[in-house]
Design a protein that fits this description.
mainly alpha, 17 helices
């Protein structure tokens, strides 16, 4: 273990990846703080029901984004050459245009049938479009290692989106529409910045459209819609499982404490994920020019120790504050903090590993790991009739740990196969 930690420190702590992650993470922290402060101010000006309504709207947009490109956008980063990356980008645009039309039609039908307010039904397709454009912009930036651009785009969104929200809630516009419009403009501001930053890249994109190339790319990366798309859906469901399962197996007070603890630890988890995933994807992406590095077990151990210490400190601080919560609705929060902190620790550890596994054509084991993790979560909910809610949380933590370490082993194996294929190609 000591040797593995020394190797981790030599390769990461003293190298460029950590500097890139720290710089990107700093910008993301600043973006999150600005958004949070503005949201707190907005909470005094809007009806609380608007938060719930926008939560549903936001969830629909996020679910649509997962399927919008059938996960072919992952091939933009994973492609071995720039020509293949361009074909993957054009394929993503082609498929995304078709599916966006389907989602837009479904939204309008839902609005016409009274299942959704018509104003929101009109705005939802625009939210999906803006999120899709930002997803493709981030994918191209990650491929090129433009972490500065990613950080600045996130800052632009963090300024425009909450700023627009504050300006709109001061008008007579409906509060939910204020949230939806601010969401669209916020995403478009990030897209606009990245588009301006790579304005010289558009001409080659529009000059190389070819139906045979689109068909060839779709066949080569067919594992992405077949396996990575359900894998992403299973992953999302598992990460949200404590919020979905606890209200069914515990009383309202304990469920509320779990939900609050989940939201508290979700903030560092999202920052760590957003800062580390682009670094992992850029460093591990296969290439015909160089042998991609292997994700070793020393890296997994080092990340576990580093992130584990950070989450332990945060959990310890919250536990120390528990005596001051007596007599309030937050009394008893300490019962949920340790388990939720460990669950989120393994979620943060697994996030960049999960996305990095999409760099390689072999996707069957990935979907199996995610399906088994989700099944374990559902089984824990079933066992709630025999065990306590705390026992269900322990089971979810165990499933989260299994998922993280299984993804680490899978990434080690896939990166090793990629290196071996590169060596064989050189010898031939």
């Amino acid at each position: 273990m000591a040797a593995a930690l020394r190797l981790f420190a030599t390769q990461v702590l003293k190298g460029r990846p950590l500097r890139d992650a720290v710089v990107l993470g700093g910008r993301l922290v600043a973006a999150r703080v600005m958004s949070l402060l503005t949201l707190i101010v907005a909470a005094w000006l809007v009806d609380i029901e608007a938060f719930a309504a926008f939560g549903v709207y936001q969830t629909l947009a996020a679910l649509a984004l997962i399927a919008l490109f059938l996960r072919y956008d992952a091939a933009i980063v994973a492609a071995r050459t720039e020509a293949e990356a361009g074909d993957a980008l054009r394929l993503s645009i082609f498929i995304g245009t078709i599916l966006w039309g389907v989602f837009a039609a479904a939204s309008l039908i839902a609005g016409g049938a009274g299942l959704m307010r018509m104003h929101l039904a009109l705005l939802l397709p625009l939210s999906i479009l803006a999120r899709g454009m930002l997803s493709l912009s981030f994918a191209t930036a990650v491929r090129e290692g433009d972490f500065k651009g990613i950080g600045r785009a996130s800052l632009a969104q963090a300024i425009v989106q909450p700023g627009t929200l504050l300006a709109l809630v001061l008008t007579s516009l409906d509060d939910t529409l204020c949230f939806a419009i601010a969401d669209i403009l916020g995403h478009l501001s990030a897209v606009s910045y990245l588009a301006w930053r790579r304005k010289d890249r558009f001409q080659p994109l529009w000059q190389s459209w070819s139906v045979p190339a689109l068909v060839r790319t779709a066949k080569y990366w067919k594992s992405l819609p077949l396996y990575n798309l359900p894998s992403s859906s299973f992953s999302r469901a598992f990460v949200m499982s404590p919020l979905l399962i606890m209200p069914m197996v515990a009383d309202a007070v304990f469920s509320g404490h779990v939900a609050l603890a989940y939201r508290i630890f979700d903030v560092p988890t999202q920052i760590i994920t957003a800062a580390s995933t682009p670094i992992f994807l850029n460093r591990l992406k296969p290439s015909e020019e160089r042998a991609a590095p292997i994700f070793g077990r020393h890296m997994m151990l080092g990340l576990m120790v580093l992130l584990g210490a950070a989450y332990a400190v945060m959990a310890g601080l919250l536990l120390l504050a528990d005596p001051w919560l007596e007599g309030s609705e937050l009394a008893g929060l300490a019962e949920a903090i340790p388990m939720v902190a460990m669950f989120q620790l393994f979620v943060a550890l697994a996030a960049p590993l999960n996305d990095s596994c999409a760099l390689y054509p072999q996707q069957r084991r990935l979907v199996m790991i995610q399906a088994l993790s989700l099944f374990a979560g559902l089984f824990a909910a079933f066992l709630a009739l025999r065990i306590s809610p705390e026992g269900v949380l322990v089971a979810l933590v165990a499933a989260s740990a299994f998922r993280a370490f299984a993804l680490g082993e899978l990434l080690r194996r896939l990166s090793s196969l990629s290196r071996e294929s590169f060596v064989r190609a050189l010898k031939s």
